[in-house]
Description:
By secondary structure, the chain is α/β, with parallel strands linked by helices. The protein has helices at residues 41-49, 71-75, 92-102, 107-120, 136-146, 166-181, 193-199, 217-223, 239-246, 272-279, 294-302, and strands spanning 3-12, 15-25, 30-34, 56-61, 64-65, 77-80, 154-158, 185-190, 202-207, 210-215, 227-234, 253-257, 260-266, 284-290. The strands form 3 sheets. It has a 6-stranded mixed β-sheet, sandwiched between helices. It has a 4-stranded antiparallel β-sheet with strand order 2-1-4-5, with helices on one face. Strands 12-13-11-14 form a 4-stranded antiparallel β-sheet, with helices on one face. Helix 3 (92-102) crosses helix 4 (107-120). The longest helix is centred in the middle third of the chain and has 16 residues, at 166-181. Bound molecules: adenosine-5'-triphosphate and magnesium ion (MG).
Amino acid sequence: MILQAENVIKRYQNQLALDYFSMSINEGEVIGLLGPNGAGKTTFIKTLIGLLSIDEGEINVFGIKQDGKNKDIRRQIGYVTQEITIYEEMTAKENLAFFGSLYGLKKEKLDRRILEVAEIIGLKDKLNQKAGHFSGGMKRRLNIGCALLHEPKLLILDEPTVGIDPQSRNYILEFVRKAHETGMTILYTSHYIEEVEAVASRVLIMDQGHPIAEGTLRELIERIKGDSHLLIDVRIGSEEVREKLQALPDVKEVALNDNQYHVIVPGGVIVIDRIIPILSSQGIVNINSKQPNLEDVFLTLTGKQLRDEV
Ligand SMILES: Nc1ncnc2c1ncn2[C@@H]1O[C@H](COP(=O)(O)OP(=O)(O)OP(=O)(O)O)[C@@H](O)[C@H]1O
Ligand SMILES: [Mg+2]
């Protein structure tokens, strides 16, 4: 067992950020921690690393109780923070050397690891260039490299692909897949469902500081498999009409995204004859049914869409 967190409560003054949050990570897993903005993902990471104290509950990392004092835990974790943390005025190599030395790597071992890591993050040809001249995606890759030098037992990536180019994003996702194959244990947070679907061997969905559902992708989708999902495009959607649809008996959830209503009903229930009269004034453009995915798990369980809040 790499991590075991039980009923963790964390408050920032009056704000409850973790609300009886529990999760575990087994060795060799890539666990996708999925939750919308403000769900508590970064807060949980900081508590497990020992950067933040908890108010109640217990966290054990590598079998050691996390009380913020034990340096052995931190030494075996590679933490890629949500904000990129590298030194822009230093070259890629100098950055790697600096972070490696923080973890006690020296001389030959450090040189060897710098080359190995540069290869992994695809920056071998750029080692002598200043990090400040890199694109956002290259900076992120360097940032990940800095967390890999000491060969951590647990790698934590906190929304590593936000705001970077598609090529670097694919590079990072590919890196995670390969790292999984080599047996590395990874905690990957994101609010992008497709990413978590692509890389995670197990998924934990959280909202408002609390775990909502946990399992493999297949298990989570199985939970909602019985439901039917209707996608109805109209010319102009409205919140008022969404509420009317939501109020229909048998309708589980209705979300409105641009001009598309997403209606979830239990399998076998026919609602379309009741929906059409409500939507007729909005100009129905298209009606489709679809296979449920992870996004629908979130919508079904929370009644919310997993999207960026503006
Ligand atoms: N230092 C702080 N002081 C007060 N409240 C905080 C602090 N840090 C986070 N919060 C609040 O705690 C809650 C959880 O925040 P957290 O950053 O852990 O969420 P998150 O899931 O990482 O979100 P995001 O996807 O935006 O990174 C939010 O309501 C946030 O506003
Ligand atoms: Mg965060």
